Amino acid sequence: AAENAAAKMTVKVLRTDSGIAVGTVRALDQKSSPIGEARYSFGPQDKETEASFDLPVELRNDITRLDISGERSAGVVQLLDKRWRRRAIGIVTGTTSETAQPLLAPTFYLTRALAPFADVRLADRGSPQQGITQFLDQKLPMIILADVGTVAPEIRERLNAWIDQGGVLVRFAGPRLAQAEDDLVPVKLRKGGRTLGGSLTWEKPQHLAAFAANGPFAGVAVPKDVTVNRQVLAEPDAVLATKSWASLEDGTPLVTGEHRGKGLVSLFHVSADMRWSDLPMSGTFVEMLRRVVDMSGYTAKPGPGVAAEASTETVAPLHILDGFGAFGPPPATAKPLPADYRDRATPDHPPGFYGPAEGPLAVNTLAASDRIAALNTAGLRARHATYTNAEPRDLRGWLLSTALALFLIDAIIVAVLGGGIAALLRRRAATAMIVVGLALAGLVSLAPAPSRADGASDEFAMKAVSQTRLAYVVTGNADVDSIVKAGMSGLTQFLAQRTALEAGDPVGIDPGRDELAFFPLIYWPIVPGAPKPPQDAINKIDAYMKQGGTVLFDTRDAIEAPPGENGAAQTPGMQTLREILSSLDVPELEPVPREHVLTKTFYLLRDFPGRFSTGQTWVEALPRDEDDDSAQRPARGGDGVSPIIITSNDLAGAWAQRLDGQFMLPMSGGDARQREFAYRAGANIVMYTLTGNYKADQVHAPALIERLGQ
Asked: Which comes out higher in pLDDT, residue 465 or 422?
C-alpha cells in the first residue's frame, strides 16, 4: 500500500516470516523506466515496515507501478492510476477578512480539508482576477473560487476554455456570489441569499438529506449534526434535479454540478467558512471534496448524476498482471468493470490496468487494508519420499528371448502329444544345432553393436554422399556410444524441424579405418583413460581438419572440477584430450568471443550449454590487428571455419532421446530452457560448419541489431 502525502510518499511493506531482512522498493513510470528507489528493513519480529520516497510532486505523479526489487509475484506489485496522484489545486477567495482573522477565513477550512490528498496553492495577494490568471498560466487541473462574485469577461473566456479542455472548477457561495450574475455556475441562481432561522423568519435551519444514489457522493455517510442556516437558491427548472448532487431535507440543492466539454463545474450553495453552515467542520466535508478531486484528472467519466445517465460506464481490460507480476494481454475471462471501481482484484477482474491508455484505472491484487497471514500447515499430512533418478532399462532382447523359449517349449509339448517325439529324437543333432543357433541369436540381440563404417566399401561411400550426415567417433564404450548416437539423432531431428537442413541418420566412424571427407562435422566424445588412437588415425584427423572439416571434441566433464589456470580444466577427460591433441597440428585456441560468427549463424547466443552450462567452448583464435589490439576482429579470413571446437558441457547428452521421445539424461542447471539452448547451440555449430562465416558480413548487421533490440 502507498500513501502520497504532501512532503513524501510512504510505502507499506508486509511479510509473514521473521528475522532481519532488508530490500528495495522501486518506482516505475508508465514506460517501466525507473523514477526512484527506497530502502526498507525489517526487525527480527516485524511484520510491517515502511519505505519513503523523497521526490517532488511532479515526479511522484508520474509513478504508475511500485514493486519490490528481486521479487517476482503479483502480490509485490502496487499499480497506481490518476486517482492516486496528488493534484495541485488553486484556491482563490473574494473575501478580505483572511488577513484580520486567518483562522476563520474560507482558505483555512479548504486548506485543512484538502491537505491530506492534494497540494493546495493559495493565490498571491491581489485581486481574484490575478489569482485566477496565475493558476490558469500554471495549468492546474482544479481551481476553487470561494465567494468570488463578478469575473472579468476575458478571464471568464479563459476559464470556459480551460473547463472545456478538462479543468474542474468548484465554487463556494457567499455574499458576493449571491449578488452577482455569472454563467460559471451549473444552475441559474436567484439573487440574494436565503436565510434559515432567525427573528424575522419562520423557517428553521435545515439538515442534510441522503445523498443521491447515482451521484458522486453516493455512499458517503450523512452527518446528523450538520445544519445549514443560509444558502443561495437555484431557479427551479426541468433539469435541476439531474444536476443536484446533495440536497437539504426540504429538497433545496446544497451541491450542484454540470459536465462541460471534458471538464466540470460544481457549486456548493453554502460558504466555505462557518458563516452559513457548520459543514466545513465535519468529516463529511473532507470526503465530499475528496470525491470532487478524484473526478479531476479523470474526466473521461464525469461522475454519476452529472449528465443524468442512468447506466454506469464500464472500462475494458488493457494490461493484466500475471502471477509473476509481469504485464501481458488480457485473458478471455477478464471482464470490464465500472469506471468507479475501487475494490481489489477478483477472478472476473484480474489485477492490471483497465480503460483508455491515457487514463487507465488500476486494480491491485491486495487492498490497503489487507494483511498477509502465514500458511497454516498443521492440518496437512505430508509424506516424505526419496526421488530416484534411475534410467529405464531396455528389456526388448530379454522379452524376445523369453517369447522364443516359450515357443520352443510349446513346440516340444505339441510334438510329444502328437506322437512325433520319436522322429524328433532321430533328428536330435539337427534340432540341437537349431536351438543353439537361436539362442546365440537371442544373445546377440541383447548386446549393443556399435555401427562401424567400412571406408573401403562402396556401400559406405554411397550412403555417406547420398545425403548430408553428421558423424561421431565410436569409442568402444557401449554406454557412451549409445548416448552419443541418440544425441546426434536428436540433433538431426531438431535441425529438420527448425531449419532447412534435412540430414540423414548420423554415422558412427572409426578414424583409423573410415574415410572422413564425407562428413562436415565429426563429434568426438572423450572417454577418460581411453588409450590414445593410433598414429594413422591421428594423421587422418589432421588431414581432415586441414581440408576444411571440423571436429567437435567434448570431454563431458564440466561439472567435475572448476577451471584451472587460464581457464583450463584439470579433469581426467581433459588430460585424455591433451594426449590426443599433442600429436595434432592444432591452431591457437580461445574461448568463443562475443562477436564470433558462431554466436549468430542461426540463433543469437551468448554461450553454448549442454547438460552442463559451466564449461568453456574453445575455437580457433580470431586474427588480431597487431597494430591495434582494441580493433574489432573479423570472424575469420575468407569463408573458413574453425577446424576444431572444444567443449566440456556434454552436448550429446543434452540432445539424446529415447525411442519414446523422452530424454535419456537430466540437465544439471536450474534453467528450464537449458535443453532448448543446447539444441540451439548444436544448430549454430552445424550451420557454422556448413555455411562458414557469411553471417559476419555487414549486410546482416541491420537484421541482427533489430533482433537484439538495440
From this structure: 465
| Counted domains in the chain | 4
Same domain, 581 and 526: yes
Is the model's pLDDT at 384 over the cut of 80?
no
Give me the phi and psi of 290, to 5 degrees please. Answer: -60, -40
Pairing of strands 352-354, 317-321: antiparallel
Express each pLDDT in 630-658 by its tens digit.
444 444 444 668 899 999 999 999 999 98
Alpha helices (H) along 547-673: 572-581, 651-655
Which residue range is the domain that position 112 belongs to?
A: 87-295
For residue 380, the surrounding DSSP H or E stretch is: none
Within 10 Å of residue 89's Cβ, how many Cβ atoms?
25
Residue 313 covered by a domain: no
Assess whether pLDDT exceeds 50 at residue 208.
yes
Strand pairing report for 142-146 and 118-122: unpaired
Q: Are residues 438 and 502 in the same domain?
A: no
Residues near 383 by beta carbon (within 8 Å), at least 6 away in sequence = none
Q: What percent of the chain has pLDDT over 70?
A: 81
Q: Model-level pTM?
A: 0.44
What's the rounded mean pLDDT across residues 257-267? Answer: 91
202: domain CATH number is: 3.40.50.880
Domain termination site, one of 295, 314, 348? 295
Name which of 500, 483, 502, 477 is nearest 492 in CA terms: 502
Residues 179 and 68 grouped into a single domain: no
Buried b (16+ CB within 10 A) or exposed e, 216-226: bbbebeebeeb
pLDDT at 308: 38
In this structure, of 135-139, 180-184, 277-281, the range with the lowest mean pLDDT score is 180-184
Asked if residue 233 is part of any domain, the answer here is: yes
**553 and 428 in a common domain:** no
Judgement on whether residues 542 and 473 belong to the same structural domain of the protein: yes
Contact 471, 525 (CB under 8 A): no
